Amino acid sequence: MICLTKTVGILLVISSCVIAAYAGHIYGTVVEANTPVANMKVEIVTPSNAYSTTTAGDGSYRLFVPENGKCTFKAHYKGQTPAVEIYSYDDPVGYKFEIVVANGTYQLVKR
Fold this sequence. Notes:
Elements: H1 2-22, E1 25-32, E2 35-36, E3 41-45, E4 50-54, E5 60-64, E6 69-76, E7 83-88, E8 93-102, E9 105-110
Parallel strand pairs: 1-8
Antiparallel strand pairs: 1-2, 1-5, 3-4, 3-6, 6-7, 8-9
């Protein structure tokens, strides 16, 4: 019985660590004309902090944002910084963006 209790306790600790490892993750892709945008700085700005990374070769990004709520996603692209409002949650959330041009200005459009 003691062995079973220890096993259940260990499993609970492991499962809570796995859940915590995914909390606050924001991930996705950025494309332009259906082509992945590689090696681009992306930034997520919360009311109290900013978190940044660089997109991978396939246009993907992944950031950990511990704050929940409204954020701003920024893409640093060809001398411009288009931005769009997103949200961070306790659970992982994915956002796919397309960079489009309107009147010479780059914009981010959620796909």
